[in-house]
């Protein structure tokens, strides 16, 4: 292995700890601390994901044409650290927006360059080790993600947002330092210059490469990401339901996992499944038929759709009032991680080997841009199924809360409703210690019994229990003419929309993979 590889992998482990640790608690932070509705929070998370995976295009340009990969990574890592600092200091929606913007610039900008910088350490003499290096690289990602997904939700629960966001920031600072330590051992590919870069970009050969890869990444791999990235949004919300039993027993020892900690199982499965497929799974399949990179991706697309079948079944059980054990969501994670090994790891290496040296970072950025498109698909689906309705009156009391909606509009029992903060309404609950908990009237609810005669609907909490509120509002106008959003599909139906989408794409991918003709590029030998 080249001497610089340990520094790159160490940097990646710490950087991924910072990123996934921060992202693991975003949904809980937005819905429970900033009191956003589920629909709004989902769109925030996936908009952030779009930015993170769009900006690699700019980072690749800086690295390949202007600064080189090393300088680009160091410079943008500092911006990355500042984003974590803002999140840790400002516990507001404005602070959230500013922090996520800086993290998107830093993380997105370095993303294509770290992976391609790893590939630059190899020549044709040791290119046989390239797949193993990318395997270690992906393993480092998931070791960092596994530890942070367990730790940061606990930090949020025990110490609050400042510590929970501050620790990932400290790890990003560590990642920057580790990468700097390797500066003397790295093989660096200098930028080709703006003029030469543009000349390379606008050749017929480069155009063919980019066109072929854009079909693979943008039309097919992007749909995989539209499902996978929901492990940090809709799957966290699903795990937050009281009807999901999150008690884990190991012998005589039992404990309850936090909803956002369950994501750690994905990283654990990556750590175990990556060597399994490399040394057992793929060799066995190769005995049946030749397993190319595109065939791996195609198989992964089909497998991933099964994970959302499990998620849809879980929601169906909870809609019927049944308690579902967290083991079922772990099964969904096992399936989607299998798909990730076949799609994401394979596509990452495939992107690098399909590009000549001058545009390797650009092609890596194209792979990451597929994640942007995947998050965009999720946002489009969510916006399409959300319907705004005006609340004409809100009638809260200690027995239940009813809303009256505009004439001609209907809600069915089970529909999810997102309400913004309304006046000074607050939730009345007595905690176990006897104190009164006052949570402002905001967030996501479920439509209960409806009365078509006066267009009134009872509000239930996300687990189907009556909502008990009281008001200290001095102006009744605060309790009317509020625009809310409701989800036109029940939870399980939402998941099956994505099952159908990915299955259709997987079927279309079969002839594309069969006819695809690509190239294989690694660096020339260096003395």
User: Strand content of the residues, in percent?
Assistant: 5-15%
Looking at CATH, the homologous superfamily of the largest domain is MFS general substrate transporter like domains
Indicate how many domains the architecture comprises: 2
Q: Strands of the largest sheet, in order across it?
A: 5-6-11-10-7-13
- At CATH level 3, the topology of the largest domain is Growth Hormone, Chain: A
Helical fraction equals 55-70%
Distance between the termini: 15 Å
Q: Low-confidence parts, pLDDT < 50 over ≥5 residues?
A: 472-478
Structural class: alpha+beta
Mind telling me which CATH architecture of the largest domain this is?
Up-down Bundle
Secondary-structure topology with pairs:
Blueprint: H1 5-24, H2 26-33, H3 38-54, H4 56-67, H5 69-89, H6 93-120, H7 130-159, H8 161-181, H9 194-201, H10 204-228, H11 234-240, E1 244-245, E2 247-250, E3 253-256, H12 264-288, H13 293-319, E4 324-325, H14 326-353, H15 360-385, E5 386-396, E6 401-405, E7 416-419, E8 425-430, E9 436-440, E10 443-451, E11 456-460, E12 469-471, E13 482-487, H16 491-515
Parallel strand pairs: 1-4
Antiparallel strand pairs: 2-3, 5-6, 5-13, 6-11, 7-10, 7-13, 8-9, 8-12, 10-11
């Amino acid at each position: 292995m080249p001497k610089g590889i340990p520094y790159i992998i160490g940097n990646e482990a710490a950087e991924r700890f910072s990123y996934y640790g921060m992202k693991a608690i975003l949904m809980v932070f937005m819905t429970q601390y900033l009191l956003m509705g589920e629909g709004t929070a989902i769109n925030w998370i996936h908009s952030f994901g779009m930015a993170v995976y769009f900006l690699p295009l700019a980072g690749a340009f800086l690295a390949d044409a202007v600064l080189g990969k090393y300088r680009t990574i160091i410079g943008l890592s500092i911006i990355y650290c500042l984003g974590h600092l803002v999140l840790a200091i400002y516990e507001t929606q404005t602070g959230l927006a500013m922090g996520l913007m800086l993290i998107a610039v830093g993380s997105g900008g370095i993303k294509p360059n770290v992976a391609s910088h790893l590939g630059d350490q190899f020549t044709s003499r040791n290119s046989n080790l390239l797949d193993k290096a990318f395997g270690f690289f992906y393993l480092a990602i998931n070791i960092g993600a596994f530890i942070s997904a367990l730790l940061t939700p606990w930090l949020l629960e025990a110490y609050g947002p400042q510590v929970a966001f501050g620790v990932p920031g400290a790890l990003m600072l560590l990642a920057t330092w580790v990468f700097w330590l390797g500066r003397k051992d790295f093989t660096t590919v200098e930028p080709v210059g703006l003029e030469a870069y543009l000349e390379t970009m606008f050749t017929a050969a480069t155009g063919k490469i980019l066109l072929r890869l854009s079909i693979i990444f943008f039309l097919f791999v992007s749909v995989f990401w539209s499902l996978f990235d929901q492990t940090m949004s809709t799957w966290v919300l699903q795990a937050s339901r009281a009807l999901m039993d999150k008690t884990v027993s190991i012998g005589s020892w039992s404990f309850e996992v936090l909803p956002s900690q369950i994501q750690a199982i994905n990283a654990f499965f990556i750590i175990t499944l990556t060597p399994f497929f490399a040394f057992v799974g793929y060799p066995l399949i190769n005995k049946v038929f030749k397993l190319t990179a595109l065939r791996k991706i195609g198989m992964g697309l089909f497998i991933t759709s099964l994970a959302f079948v499990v998620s849809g079944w879980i929601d169906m059980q909870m809609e019927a009032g049944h308690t579902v054990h967290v083991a079922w969501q772990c099964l969904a994670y096992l399936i989607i991680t299998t798909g990730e090994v076949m799609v994401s790891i394979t596509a990452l290496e495939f992107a690098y080997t399909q590009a000549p040296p001058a545009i390797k970072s650009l092609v890596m950025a194209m792979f990451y841009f597929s994640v942007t498109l995947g998050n965009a698909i999720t946002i489009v689906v969510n916006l399409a199924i959300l319907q705004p309705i005006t609340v004409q009156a809100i009638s809260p009391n200690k027995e239940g809360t009813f809303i009256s909606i505009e004439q001609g509009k209907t809600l069915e029992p089970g529909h999810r409703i997102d309400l913004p903060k309304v006046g000074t309404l607050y939730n009345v609950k007595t905690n176990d210690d006897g104190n009164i908990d006052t949570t402002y009237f905001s967030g996501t609810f479920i439509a209960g019994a409806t009365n078509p005669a006066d267009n009134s609907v009872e509000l239930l909490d996300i687990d189907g229990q009556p909502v008990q509120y009281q008001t200290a509002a001095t102006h009744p106008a605060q309790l009317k003419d509020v625009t809310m959003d409701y989800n036109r599909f029940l939870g399980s139906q939402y998941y099956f929309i994505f099952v159908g989408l990915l299955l259709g794409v997987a079927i279309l991918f079969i002839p594309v993979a069969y006819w695809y003709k690509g190239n294989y590029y690694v660096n020339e030998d260096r003395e």
